[in-house]
Amino acid sequence: MTMKHTGGRRKPPTIHDVAREAGVSRGTVSRVLNGGHYVSPAAQEAVNAAIRKTGYVVNRHARSLITGRSDSVGFLLTEPQERFFEDPNFNVLLRGCTQALAAHDIPLLLMIAGTEAERRRITRYITAGHVDGVLLVSSHSGDPLAERLRDAGVPLVACGKPIGHTSKVSYVAADDRDGARDMVRHLLALGRRRIGTITGPLDTPGGVERLAGYREVLAEAGVPYDERLVVTGDYSHAGGEAGAAELLRRDPGLDALFVASDLMAQGALSALHRAGRRVPEDIAVGGFDDSPAATSTDPALTTIRQPWDRISTEMVRVLLAQIGGEDPAAVILPTELIRRAST
Amino acid sequence: MTMKHTGGRRKPPTIHDVAREAGVSRGTVSRVLNGGHYVSPAAQEAVNAAIRKTGYVVNRHARSLITGRSDSVGFLLTEPQERFFEDPNFNVLLRGCTQALAAHDIPLLLMIAGTEAERRRITRYITAGHVDGVLLVSSHSGDPLAERLRDAGVPLVACGKPIGHTSKVSYVAADDRDGARDMVRHLLALGRRRIGTITGPLDTPGGVERLAGYREVLAEAGVPYDERLVVTGDYSHAGGEAGAAELLRRDPGLDALFVASDLMAQGALSALHRAGRRVPEDIAVGGFDDSPAATSTDPALTTIRQPWDRISTEMVRVLLAQIGGEDPAAVILPTELIRRAST
DNA sequence: TTCTCTACTGTGAACGCTCACAGAAGCATG
DNA sequence: CATGCTTCTGTGAGCGTTCACAGTAGAGAA
């Protein structure tokens, strides 16, 4: 009796134990484990019974050592600031990816590259083959880390369209431009004509595309473009507040506002409220994201819903396809206008 | 030229390559890799140079295969609902744990156990030794999964005190009770006497402890306990709204409100606003959590800050210690009253 | 000198798995 | 009867590490 009795973990069964139990060889067990081709029904059944009986679970390290695959993927966040962790969409994305991967029995490794030291460490880790692919979430595009990984031949899928890259890199994105178009069309349909906008940072795809949609629709409607009605925001509450105040100052006759994120829209509502404007009577306000906060503002926010649940599943799908040898692909998903009280 | 030119990954250098490059044996390289004991300075230097030159990164699968350790830990979320992903504290926790682990070069595997099928899959995965330990985040305690893992001898650290378990399981928690005491004392100091509370779910440690703190301080102050001033909430916006409305109905003379979470407090503020009560003039409102939302309410919320950054570092510290063979430990961290405009 | 001790180094044997290959058995075809 | 094909099964090698062990060299003590 040399075994420790204080929560000691027993040595788990190996493929050998299963083989002995089933009366077959390691090879046959391995074949059952990997799809069951070229295995007789009798052996198949015997092996499955032995697996159930022994409680066998494959040792992924041993498998990875020989296959060269790790059967895991990284979820990489490259963000100097903590912004992503304040973004409710990020949660949905992370959760969705985790679960979509879990369906394939693939664990997700969370990696956060804030400092330069972290970037180096993570690059080494990834390029050493410790993950089979990377789900990349970074707001500011043109990320050197993304390039390094791509150059190293690591399967990669970005969330949102990377700008500045002409190279082939997979991405999955909501149709930002079309969403913005829907919102501005909606505001026009309400009879509004002095429509201001608070954009996202213009080094982000969302910032650029949503502004483009805004301009396109106004142009199509014959409303002359007025650059005084455009301010650049930073996706923060404070930024939205400042942006709205600035727009009111530039044009007190403003009758609608398209804000490129709900969080900024929330800030804008505060500023409008403080300025004595009624929403939506005096100024209609449209947001973007359909974050949980959108329903708890007063009035509840009309916004554009991005299909985050589908985005995560698509990212995983495209990444796994790429790991499987397929070429990079771009997927663009439609958005949806959610009408609430603010317009 | 048989090498694929389309992003093919080269075979990475092994310990053998490093040994050859440095003119030493595998054993010496391995010793350098694992602390460098019993290695001459000359060999040490030669190996380090060779590692730099070859770009060698240890193959963790090969290492894990023989050591039996995986050098990774799981971050396990056992939540039937999506609640955690709406909780901003959760983000801070996840981020903090990831980074604290990264400092030890240990990857974090995110696991979400929603359905029963997922629980089984994850249990198998963990007990098979694919992670060295688990950081457990579950709101509702008495989780069968936690018990199963503990019984399997898996190192485990919970976030928040597990209730219902008399057994020894490590945990790290903020001092909920003391935080609640601070808040209620603060409200008393403001001269308030009809102090209501909206609790968290009473099957969560936070729900129980914060209510206990509330009762203790009132008792110490000689304020008779009035159960009509206590309603049970669910940590949701809507729950806070309903709770505040109910309390106003039960006692229109209410002059203070201690709400067990900021999100509920936000809901409560809406309800009070709708009922025509001024905050803090008519009713002082105190929250709990110091979530980002606390500063964007109107008025800004007085609240109790939980040291989430320290909680995450402590969880990691305790878990690694336990993996290293130390006994389970409980860590309780102090909270801080953050005074803002709502009191 | 000889022995012991310490500091260091190299080597073979695992770890648990997959893969390539060799073979066996069954059956049809020449 | 040989030959080929298909379906199935077992075996040896090897993936890249660590670990235990055996050794070597040099210093100091007997």
Mind explaining what this structure looks like?
The structure is a homodimer of 343-residue chains. By secondary structure, chain A is of the alpha/beta class. In chain A, 45% of the residues lie in helices and 15% in strands. Chain A has helices spanning 15-22, 26-33, 41-54, 60-67, 83-86, 88-102, 116-130, 144-151, 176-189, 205-220, 237-250, 262-274, 308-323, and strands at 73-78, 108-113, 133-137, 156-159, 170-174, 195-199, 230-232, 256-259, 284-286, 303-305, 330-333, 336-338. In chain A, helix 6 (88-102) packs across helix 13 and helix 9 runs parallel beside helix 10. The longest helix of chain A is centred in the middle third of the chain and has 16 residues, at 205-220. Chain A is elongated, with a radius of gyration of 26 Å. The termini of chain A are far apart. In chain A, 49% of the residues are buried. Chains A and B meet through helix 4, helix 6, strand 2, helix 7 and helix 12 of A and helix 4, helix 6, strand 2, helix 7 and helix 12 of B. Strand 2 of chain A pairs antiparallel with strand 2 (108-113) of chain B. Chain A binds a DNA duplex (30 and 30 nucleotides) through helix 2 and helix 4. Chains A, B: One of its GO terms (molecular function) is DNA binding. Chains A, B: Keywords: DNA-binding, Transcription, Transcription regulation. Chains A, B: InterPro entries: HTH_LacI (IPR000843), LacI/GalR-like_sensor (IPR046335), Lambda_DNA-bd_dom_sf (IPR010982), Peripla_BP_I (IPR028082).
